[in-house]
Amino acid sequence: MPDIQPTTDKARPKSSLKAWFHPRGRSISTIAFALNRLTAIGLTLYLFLHLVVLSQLLRGPEGWNSFVSIAKSPIFLTLDVILLFGVVYHMFNGIRVALVGMGVANQRQKGLFYGLVGIALILFVVGAVLIYTK
Amino acid sequence: MDSTMSRRSPEQMAARRDRSGSVWLVQAFSGLILVALLGIHMIAHHYIVEGGLRDYQQVLDYVSNPIIFTLEVLFVILGVTHSMLGVRSIIGDMRPSAGTLRVANWVLIIAGALAIGYGIYLAVALQQLAG
Ligand code: HEM
């Protein structure tokens, strides 16, 4: 996985933004890295949006409860499912990146990747079903 | 994925205790702690409650619990710090000029401080509203 490096590692290839996301001829490791970065950017944007939305709570029960009823519409639930994918992928791939970057399980990186991303996918499917059915 | 995929060994890490190396460690450790904090946050807010999301009174009751209050405040501090450091390293990878990086650093510090300040204010205000 030569492309997946701690962001600050000197060995990491430096390239333009477009090149990071160019899938052709790329290994699973590059795709794993690009997806980690993409989900990271999405989560960061969501974090700020989330804080803004939470300001509805300061407007009292009407403000918040009317937001909650909009948030239960199918479009919002679908956005929730997309968000859930971003969270579980970034979280479980992030565990691998953090462990390997700290020198833990260096030699078992491939197994770690498939194992953790496998858990992420199972949690994603269970979570997505719950979002639509609960 | 062969042996070249392995990254810095602990020895290499120890040899590189420069600023960027320690910033990455903060990023990695905050990420690992976020697994628990974000996990609790998502399950408690979105999966335990019947109907999927807490209504106004349920939110107040939840945040007024001192343990939950502490976890939520920690979550906003670590989440914002982790993501601002992450955005900084993405910008760093784009080889910005020193001037651009300086401006980006300040923008991220200010945005991060505002987000953390506002998040804590919100948690305290909700706790007071709960009485
Ligand atoms: C839930 C647990 C999380 C874990 C275990 C985790 C782990 C990590 C790790 C290890 C990195 C470094 C990637 C690298 O050096 O290549 C990273 C990057 C990043 N994370 Fe997280 N993270 C988590 C949650 C979050 C959240 C909630 C956000 C946003 C709100 C976020 C935003 C970012 C950003 C912006 C980056 C920079 C991406 C890059 O350098 O490619 N992370 N994360």
Can you tell me about this structure?
The complex is a heterodimer of chains A (134) and B (131). With 134 residues, chain A is mainly alpha-helical. Chain A is built from five helices and no strands. Helices cover 79% and strands 0% of the residues of chain B. The model of chain B is unreliable at 1-19 (pLDDT under 50). The chains are: A mainly alpha (134), B mainly alpha (131). Chains A and B meet through helix 2, helix 3, helix 4 and helix 5 of A and helix 1, helix 2, helix 3, helix 4 and helix 5 of B. The complex binds protoporphyrin IX containing FE. Protoporphyrin IX containing FE (HEM) sits between chains A (6-7, 36-37, 40, 43-44, 47, 90-91, 94-95, 97-98) and B (27-28, 31-32, 34-35, 38, 79, 82-83, 86-87, 89-90).
Write the layout of secondary structure elements.
The complex is a heterodimer of chains A (134) and B (131).
Chain A: H1 17-20, H2 28-54, H3 61-71, H4 74-101, H5 109-133
Helix pairs in contact in A: 2-4, 4-5
Chain B: H1 10-15, H2 19-47, H3 56-63, H4 66-93, H5 98-130
The structure holds protoporphyrin IX containing FE (HEM).
Protoporphyrin IX containing FE sits between chains A (6-7, 36-37, 40, 43-44, 47, 90-91, 94-95, 97-98) and B (27-28, 31-32, 34-35, 38, 79, 82-83, 86-87, 89-90).
Structural features:
heterodimer, A: about 130 residues, mainly alpha, 3 helical TM bundles of succinate and fumarate reductases, 5 helices, about 70% helix, about 0% strand, elongated, disordered N terminus, B: about 130 residues, binds protoporphyrin IX containing FE
> Any idea what the radius of gyration of chain A is?
18 Å
Cα-to-Cα separation, first versus last residue of chain A: 40 Å
Largest β-sheet summary of chain B = none
The CATH homologous superfamily of chain B is named Fumarate reductase/succinate dehydrogenase, transmembrane subunit
User: Helix segment count of chain A?
Assistant: 5
Quaternary structure classification: heterodimer
Top CATH class of chain B: Mainly Alpha
The CATH C-level name of chain A is Mainly Alpha
Shape of chain A: elongated
Q: Count the E strands of chain A.
A: 0
| Broad structural category of chain A | mainly alpha
- How many strands, what sense, and barrel or not for the largest sheet of chain A? none
**Mean residue pLDDT of chain B:** 85
